[in-house]
Amino acid sequence: MKRPIMHIDIPTANRAATAQFYATLFGWEMSHDKFPYTWFMTGNVSGGFVDLEASLVRGREVVRAGDVILYLPSDDIDADLQRIESLGGTIIMPKTYAGKGQFVALFADPNGVHLGLAGGK
Questions:
Q1: Which pLDDT tens digit goes with each residue over 5-22?
Q2: Are strands 29-33 and 37-41 parallel, antiparallel or unpaired?
């Protein structure tokens, strides 16, 4: 089954300034969340600017300002992480509760590319 890219995270040291830059440059719609996160809509995919100073502690350990993390949907994050490891990938952030009934995990493929999984289970 082909999985689409469902979400993009762009970690930043200053999410308000980063959001303003892309809103002005590309016309993206922004929505500031009470969680240290600013959502954006590009027209074809959604994402957000992660505040590195106040984000998930586990996330701060593995991402830096300037990284771009693409997320793919997962019906079973635990099973996907097992499969990733069996194929030579590395778990860089285990399944973590992200709020609103959603979980995320980050992994690196055998060549070091970082991607994420997201889902309710």
A1: 999 999 888 888 999 999
A2: antiparallel
Distances (CA, A) of 37 to 19, 52, 79, 82: 10, 9, 28, 29
Q: Which of 12, 9, 19 is nearest to 105 (CA)?
A: 9
- Reported as a pLDDT band with limits 50, 70 and 90, residue 52 is confident
Cα gap 101→121, rounded to integer Å:
8
Residue carrying structure tokens 């689409």: 4
CATH classification code of 7-119:
3.10.180.10
- Full-model pTM: 0.85
Q: 3-class SS at 60?
A: helix
* Domain spans of the chain, in order of start: 7-119
Take residue 85 and report the two structure tokens written for it: 């490891």
Q: How far apart are CA 84 and CA 106, in angstroms?
A: 11
